[in-house]
């Protein structure tokens, strides 16, 4: 593995907290990165063997139901640190809601209203959760990320409020 992709780097970063199974990594990624970087179960289970083959993680204890723990190696820590210090490149927004909004003119007014109302409910809840996470955060970086999540959710609600449904 010559250069880490963002998903591999995310997993190595999470493994700095200690050994974890693939399922635990999926949950940890949702909790820590959910508002701004999605990591799917299939991505995690595709990346872990590649990271192991590259010597960046090693197998840990076998858990219940054949779950396998992974541990970051010294080489994995070095690769992660190197990834952190490289230019991140452009960010890419990948939002199923924005994609639906781009095609909202093909929906009836009732369908648009239902889509927007559901999305607003989701983003209002996301904003509240992010505000609570920011209040609870001890780490200034975790607080800044939670604040970003709250601002993003607020911006999405503002966007939804600005859209016509008729």
Question: How are the secondary structure elements laid out?
Answer:
Elements lengths: L5 H10 L4 E2 H12 L7 H13 L3 E6 L5 E5 L1 H11 L11 H7 L6 H28 L3 H23 L4
Antiparallel strand pairs: 1-3, 2-3
Which terms summarize this structure?
166 residues; mainly alpha; 3-stranded antiparallel β-sheet; 7 helices; 3 strands
Spans where pLDDT lies below 50 across 5 or more residues: none
Please state the structural category: mainly alpha
Q: Could you tell me the mean pLDDT?
A: 92
Listing every helix as H and every strand as E from the N terminus to the C terminus, the arrangement reads HEHHEEHHHH
Question: Strand tally, please?
Answer: 3
> Order of strands across the widest beta sheet?
1-3-2
Short note summarizing the structure:
It is built from 7 helices and 3 strands; from the N terminus they run αβααββαααα. With 166 residues, it is mainly α.
Overview of this protein structure:
By secondary structure, the chain is mainly alpha-helical. It contains seven helices and three strands. It has a three-stranded antiparallel sheet. Strand 2 and strand 3 form a beta hairpin. Helix 2 packs across helix 3 and helix 6 packs antiparallel against helix 7. The model has no long low-confidence stretch (mean pLDDT 92).
């Amino acid at each position: 593995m010559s250069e880490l992709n963002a998903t591999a780097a995310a997993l190595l970063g999470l493994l700095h907290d200690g050994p974890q199974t693939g399922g635990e990594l999926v949950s940890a990624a949702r909790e820590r990165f959910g508002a701004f970087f999605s990591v799917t179960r299939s991505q995690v289970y595709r990346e872990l063997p590649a990271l192991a083959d590259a010597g960046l993680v090693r197998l840990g204890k076998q858990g219940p139901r054949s779950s396998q723990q992974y541990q970051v190696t010294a080489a994995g820590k070095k690769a992660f640190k190197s990834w952190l210090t490289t230019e991140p490149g452009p960010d890419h927004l990948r939002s199923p809601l924005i994609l639906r909004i781009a095609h909202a003119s093909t929906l009836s007014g009732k369908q648009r209203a239902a889509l927007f109302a559901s999305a607003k409910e989701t983003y209002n809840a996301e904003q509240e959760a992010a505000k609570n996470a920011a209040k609870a955060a001890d780490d200034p970086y975790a607080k800044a990320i939670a604040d970003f999540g709250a601002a993003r959710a607020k911006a999405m609600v503002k966007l939804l409020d600005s859209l016509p449904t008729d």
